[in-house]
Design goal:
Layout: H1 8-23, H2 26-46, H3 60-67, H4 82-90, H5 100-103, E1 106-110, E2 114-118, H6 124-129, H7 153-168
Antiparallel strand pairs: 1-2
Helix pairs in contact: 2-7
Length: 170
């Protein structure tokens, strides 16, 4: 005959710790917020959506407006200077002079069970989802969606890992 015994006190102690951590998910949510903030900022550096899709390039109008911010972008005859051409070639979508959208991405804990991640910049939604001039007459043209607020497969796996590690207390 095989006998086994269970130390019920040890199991109850472990379960009690798990339940206590599940009652306050804020430490795990804060870690998720930190990681996702950095992930979303990286989408700007890569000029790619969370799923890896490259963002639409800037329109000629956008590039012209951007170059107009710099006095040395054009020669006296109106053609691009070498500096202007280099500036135009390196201009990534969403990376204007101030880089305000990408640098204001942050997270905020809301209660015990929610973390919000995004940017307070009012045009962030237009950048992420796109929009048409028909729907938004103030635009100079249609804006293609350039998704930055979303989850990649790696982000999802990281979130599962964070939550799992936090709950079991490892």
């Amino acid at each position: 005959m095989i006998e086994s015994s269970v130390n019920a006190q040890g199991v109850l102690s472990i379960l009690g710790g798990v339940m206590q951590r599940m009652d306050n998910m804020q430490p795990a949510l804060a870690e998720i917020g930190e990681d996702m903030t950095e992930s979303m900022k990286q989408h700007f550096a890569d000029a790619k959506s969370p799923d890896g899709t490259p963002w639409a390039r800037n329109s000629d109008v956008t590039v012209a407006m951007y170059l107009g911010l710099f006095k040395n972008s054009h020669k006296k005859d109106g053609t691009l200077s070498k500096r202007g051409a280099a500036r135009a070639a390196s201009k990534k979508p969403g990376t204007g002079e101030t880089k305000a959208l990408q640098t204001t991405i942050n997270y905020q804990l809301e209660g015990q069970d929610t973390v919000s991640i995004g940017s307070p910049m009012i045009y962030g939604a237009m950048f992420n989802y796109g929009g048409t001039r028909e729907a938004f007459p103030h635009l100079w043209g249609d804006i293609p969606a350039r998704e930055f607020a979303g989850f990649s497969d790696a982000d999802r796996a990281n979130i599962v890992d964070i939550v799992g590690t936090y709950i079991v207390g490892a």
